[in-house]
Structure formats: C-alpha cells, structure tokens
Design goal:
Blueprint (H helix, E strand, L loop, with lengths): L4 E6 L1 H19 L5 E6 L3 H8 L7 E8 L12 E4 L9 E9 L3 H12 L4 E9 L12 E5 L5 E2 L15 E4 L1 H4 L3
Parallel strand pairs: 2-3, 2-5, 5-6, 6-7
Antiparallel strand pairs: 1-9, 3-4, 8-9
GO biological process, one term: hypoxanthine metabolic process
Protein name: Hypoxanthine phosphoribosyltransferase
Pfam families: Pribosyltran (PF00156)
Length: 180
C-alpha cells in the first residue's frame, strides 16, 4: 500500500496532536453538557475512536452512514443514507465527527437531516478540511488539518475500500486510480 502513496501529508503524530487539540477544545465547550457524538461511517471510524478518548465529558455515541463517492475519486453529488442513527436527537446537542469535508454536500445533507429532527444544536468536527473542493457552503466548527485539493487516503479515507488502515494521510498516486 505504501508504494501507492505519492507523498505523506500528515503523519500518525500529526493526527494524534490534532486529536488532542480538538478533544480539549470540545471538552471546554461541552463540559457541562451531554452531547450526542455521531460518527460518519466508514471514513471517520479511526478519527472518532481517537478523538472521543480525548474528550473528558459525558456523551452518547452513535453512527450514521451516507455515501456520495460510490467508489470513485470525487463526489457523485447524490447523497444516499445507508445507515441511520438510533438515538433521538430532538432537543439534544449534536457533534458530527467527519473524516474530511470536501464538496460540503454530505455535511449539508446531515445538518439538514438532524435540524429537521429537532436537534437543539449541531456542530461539526472534521479531521481534514479541503476548502478548495467546496461546491456548497459548508463549514466545520472544529478542524484538525487542512488538505490540498488532491485525492487523499489513509486514517479512514479510502479508494474503493482500500487504504483506510494506513496510520497516516497521504496523496494517492494518480496512476492507481486513473483509467480504472
């Protein structure tokens, strides 16, 4: 897998430092609350696991799965709800845990979905933000790292289900995904 990586953007240590910083910030802001922390599957599983261990507060945890890439290297523009949450968010503070915000479509979809369900507040924590990829207005409240407008994999991010288990974030070589 490592041979398919053009360059490493963020090391395991860079990611751990971002998790500590964000966990501390969220703890300070939610210390007296009991938020619902929702991980967006599958990409956020590693980040979700690491960041909630950095949060010193009571919380409920749930997961939601949406798909917009459908195995490709860019968002299809069509959001499909694959797995819904089990917790009722009406009147609750919600924190979404995302691996990356790219086009912003998924984030907008999720925020609208939970606002319609009566969440009292919705905030977003993302490990990576790719502002150059935006096609709709979307902004995270907590951002770990900024990434360039390149196709990145590792630490939960994938290409056709592969590379999620890399302990770092890297740029995938174009020849791996072009003409396939």
């Amino acid at each position: 897998m490592n041979n398919d990586i053009l360059k490493t953007l963020y090391s395991k240590e860079d990611i751990a430092n971002a998790c500590r910083r964000l966990g501390k910030q969220i703890t300070e802001e939610y210390g007296d609350k009991n938020p619902v922390v929702i991980g967006v599957l599958k990409g956020a599983i590693f980040f979700m696991t690491d960041i909630v261990r950095e949060m010193d507060l009571y919380m409920d945890i749930d997961f939601i799965d949406v798909s917009s890439y459908h195995g490709g290297t860019s968002s299809s523009g069509s959001i499909e709800l694959m797995k819904d949450i089990d917790i009722d968010v009406k009147g609750r503070d919600v924190i979404f845990i995302e691996d990356i915000i790219d086009t912003g479509r998924t984030l907008k979809y999720l925020e609208d979905l939970l606002a319609d369900r009566g969440a009292s507040s919705i905030k977003v924590c993302t490990l990576m933000d790719k502002p150059e990829g935006r096609v709709v207005e979307a902004k995270a409240d907590y951002v770990g790292l900024e990434v360039p407008n390149e196709f990145v994999v590792g630490y939960g991010l994938d290409y056709k289900g592969k590379y999620r288990n890399l302990p770092y974030v890297g740029v995938l070589k174009p020849e791996v995904y072009s003409n396939k």
